Structures are given as structure tokens and as C-alpha cells.
Amino acid sequence: MPIVPRGIRGRGRDDRPARQEEPPRARHPGHHRRIDPDSTWYAPADVALVIEVVSEESADRDRSLKPFKYAQAGIPHFWRVEDEAGAPTVHTYELDTMTSTYVATGIHRARLGAAVPFPTDIDLKSLVP
Fold it and tell me: What is the CA radius of gyration of the chain?
């Protein structure tokens, strides 16, 4: 069963309870529970990848607090999307289970190619006009 990416909904901090963390964006392969497309939260064991898109308002949380929390929860992969001079740059990380911290696996500027958590080949330049 392939991973089913979720679309980014644009829900802000005001649309959910104060204690709820940011929703993960992808499901773990092989999981057979029914997916609720309107859910804003999944159990960490159900998540293979979290993708954070950094904005000015969320930059500090997206670069420091959230990766720490995702790693402590045992989520195996974390990608952070940054804006570099109007073009997307994707920083990819994989969880080191011995230390429960993320290890950088790449910085992708023109093309995002990855084998884990699923085969990915994205022309990043085509994402912006």
C-alpha cells in the first residue's frame, strides 16, 4: 500500500484546540486503518513523514521546536521547506533511533530526489512561476 500524502489545508493556529500539535502530512505504508480526510491529527506511530513549510511567523518553531518533538515521537522522516530567493529548498532528515534526533540527509534546491520514506522525484523549479 503506498503512502497517501495529505494536502496542506492552510489551517492556522486559531482553528484547532490550543494544545493540539501541527498535523502530520503523510501516512505510514502498510497501515490498514481507514483514513479520515478531515482529520487534523494522527498518532505518531501512523506517520512516516512530516513536512513543514517555513514561514516568517513559524520559522523558529519549524526549525527547532517541531523537529525536536517529531523526533521524540519517533517519526522516521522530517522535511523542511524553506524559501531561498523565491525558490523552494527542501531540507531532508532521517531519525537516528539511537539518539532520537534527526540526521540531515540532504539539501535539495533544483530537484528533490529521495528513496525513503517513498521514491520521490520532484522538479522544485517547476513549483514556482
Answer: 15
pLDDT tens-place values along the chain, 129 residues long: 334 344 433 444 444 444 444 444 444 455 555 677 888 888 888 899 999 999 999 999 999 999 999 999 999 999 999 999 999 999 999 999 999 999 999 999 999 999 999 999 999 999 888
Distances (CA, A) of 9 to 39, 56, 60, 72, 75: 11, 18, 21, 25, 21
Based on the number of CB atoms within 10 Å of its own CB, is 70 exposed (0-12), middle (13-18) or buried (19 or more)?
buried
DSSP string, 48-62: SEEEEE--TTTHHII
Exposed e or buried b for every residue in 84-113, given b needs 16+ CB within 10 A? eeeebbbbbbbbeeeeeebeebeebeeebe
Burial label for 1, CB within 10 Å (0-12, 13-18, 19+), is exposed
